[in-house]
Amino acid sequence: MEPVIELDKVDAGYPGATILKNVSFDVRKGEVFALLGTSGCGKSTIMKHMIGLNPVLGGRLKVCGMEWSDRTRARLCRKIGVMYQSGALFGNMNCLENVMLPLEEFSRLGRKARRERAMALLADVELADAAQKMPAEISGGMRKRVAIARAMALDPEVVFLDEPSAGLDPVTSASLDNLILKLKSEKAMTFVVVTHELPSIFKIADRCAMFDKSRQAMIALGVPAELKESSEDPFVRNFFSRGECHV
Amino acid sequence: MALFDSMGRRWLALFKGFHGNLSFLGETTKEWLGMLVHPGRFRFGDAALAFERAAFDGLPICGGIGFLLGVILSFQSAAALQQFGVEIYVSDLITIGLFRELGPLVTAIILAGRSGSAFAAEIGTMKVDEELDALTTMGLPPVRFLVMPRVAAAILAMPILTIFAELAGLVGGAIVLEMMNVPNAVFWRHVAATADTFMILFGLGKACLFGLLVGLVGCSAGMRTQNTADGVGRAATAAVVGGIVSIALADGILAVICYAWNL
Ligand SMILES: Nc1ncnc2c1ncn2[C@@H]1O[C@H](COP(=O)(O)OP(=O)(O)O)[C@@H](O)[C@H]1O
Ligand SMILES: [Mg+2]
Hints:
The complex is a heterodimer of chains A (247) and B (263).
Chain A: E1 3-14, E2 17-28, E3 32-37, H1 43-50, E4 58-63, H2 73-79, E5 80-83, H3 95-106, H4 111-124, H5 140-151, E6 158-162, H6 170-187, E7 190-194, H7 198-204, E8 207-212, E9 217-222, H8 224-230, H9 234-242
Parallel strand pairs in A: 3-7, 3-8, 5-6, 6-7
Antiparallel strand pairs in A: 1-2, 1-4, 8-9
Helix pairs in contact in A: 3-4, 3-5, 4-5, 8-9
Chain B: H1 2-37, H2 44-54, H3 59-82, H4 89-128, H5 131-137, H6 142-179, H7 184-194, H8 197-223, H9 231-261
């Protein structure tokens, strides 16, 4: 499987504050890749490097074979879709307009076709009836689903989801997982998912990387079920088995 | 030692803020130039909304303050001029005062308080909510989406608000002079004779410049909002303070230029 995202000895963090050192892994085409770890360990930091918001502090990071730079930015932005932790819908537009925005700016579709495409995307996330609602009028889980629809609008190659199920009830959270699996199988997209939820990890993630804040390093890389069984690292085993009681 | 340390830090912070403002200005200029090539990129809808809020919703307060300004100026100067029996010259004084200086200045300060702070708070809230990041990763520069429409709205709102405040100020002056037995007709004749086109246009030009400053400073403060509990509040404060300081600075520089060139 060809890699879509390649991290080679990446130092992650912010200018003057290294959070993770020497991180290397690949995300392969068509897989769901999970970023795991305790809160504050640098999952979102790594994701912000991958989506080109912050430059890496060291090493090389390639998305679709390109590094982020002023020259590649416009092309790379078209290849990715991002759902932020809060949804980050634009508050002055209704849900439909939020999904239509990337289509208006980048697609060659006519007005009517854009509208139909956006409605189809909302139907994919089962929110067609909320199209005319403003973001403030819908629940957090609905906002995240609209944000997923917006991230999918331009058929990106990689979709990044920052904590899609955090703060959601178990039913909504499970339906989000099903949505991700459905989109993965129907559209053959690659997903990078930041998550804490063990049931969700075992259900959707093909592979995962785990980070540890105190060691400032990636401490595990592989298939979740295998890591749970056979990891040498007590921290990793502990992370996976502690969730047993929640399942 | 500690004093030098804290002073050093202050200067460093000031320099960093300056640097941040410069790169913000650079990006804004780049977007303006890009807009000349692709006018279709301008977000007219957003600009219209910002304009409505800055201009029309600001009319009552600008009119009210302008009126009071006219009344106060008239009373204060009338007291002095009455001693010589020339209270009619009050009309000349408030015409020049309002059109050249106070109209644009006071309107700009009101705009900084009303709209500069609103720009900073709106953009700051979007930043804290990751909406700016969302725009960036969608390949849509936040400057084009959020800053340009607001700055344009501020520039266009200022002349309208200024004229309104100035007219209200003249009405205030007319009422005061009426009470001092100067007939209205005489007052307005003096106003018409004093106000020349250059003076009015110069004042309105200044108004546009102040609008540009208030818009830029407000948006820049919003874009630099920190992700803390009081981040948005601080951004709004910075927008008002920075806006007023930059207006005063610009006005001072213009006054020196006018004096040097005898304008
Ligand atoms: N803008 C920033 N500048 C410096 N440090 C930051 C910044 N944002 C987050 N951090 C720090 O980076 C660490 C990792 O944060 P983050 O990647 O958001 O964690 P999480 O794994 O929960 O998503 C945290 O300790 C946080 O304090
Ligand atoms: Mg996070």
